[in-house]
Specification:
single chain; 202 residues; mainly alpha; three-stranded antiparallel sheet; 8 helices; 53% helix; extended
């Protein structure tokens, strides 16, 4: 971990270590290690494949609809559940989730279940922040290897960090607007504005 920038918080350093360990395990599981290549010899394509494999899509049951029996049977079969789970499925359908490696597969599962009249939604279970941090960890690692002349090419040099979207501010409800309009704010605002002026004149 000597390549890590000094001054980082312990939790951040721990996350970076975890990210590199995660990439190493992925490297071994995909069979790249068996070819005689180590992670220092990774290509840009390897990094992109790794980041792609990080993305998992969750198919979540929202409501069974009117035809509960058909929807329940279909969901049990697709989700790989037993008939003993049917009661729980009817009582709390949103608890049951199926994870798919690609969005196309998730869409197929969604369409199959929706044919029974059930309501289903798809969610990307891997956050942009996770992608960003893991790519950032790899970038720092390969920059260190290049700087120490351990490798000649940085496979992450052309890869851009994903942008984190800005969260929208909470909106005020119609009831809240009504309360504000009914509140006698004019006098309060004038009083607040007048305070600094009185202090200047005193």
């Amino acid at each position: 971990t000597s390549w890590l920038v000094s001054g980082l918080r312990p939790n951040t350093l721990s996350s970076y270590r975890f990210d590199l360990l995660h990439f190493s395990k992925w490297w071994a599981l995909t069979g790249r290690a068996k070819t005689g290549c180590n992670i220092g010899q990774a290509s840009e394509s390897d990094i992109l494949n790794y980041l792609s494999d990080l993305t998992k899509f969750e198919v979540k049951l929202v409501d069974l609809g009117e035809n509960r029996n058909a929807a329940s049977e279909m969901t049990l079969a697709i989700f790989g559940l037993s008939h003993g789970d049917s009661r729980s499925l009817v009582g709390a359908p949103s608890v049951f989730v199926k994870r798919c490696p690609t969005q196309d597969e998730a869409e197929k599962v969604k369409k199959q279940i929706e044919k029974t009249g059930a309501s289903v939604k798809i969610k990307n279970s891997t956050s942009v922040r996770t992608h960003r941090r893991r790519l950032s960890s790899l970038r720092g690692f390969y920059r260190y290897l290049v700087g120490e002349n351990i490798v000649k090419i940085d496979p992450t040099s052309k890869l851009k960090l994903p942008k984190i979207g800005r969260s929208l501010p909470d909106t005020i409800s119609e009831e809240g607007v009504d309360r504000l309009l009914k509140e006698p704010l004019v006098g309060k605002v004038l009083t607040v504005l007048a305070e600094p002026i009185d202090k200047l004149n005193s």
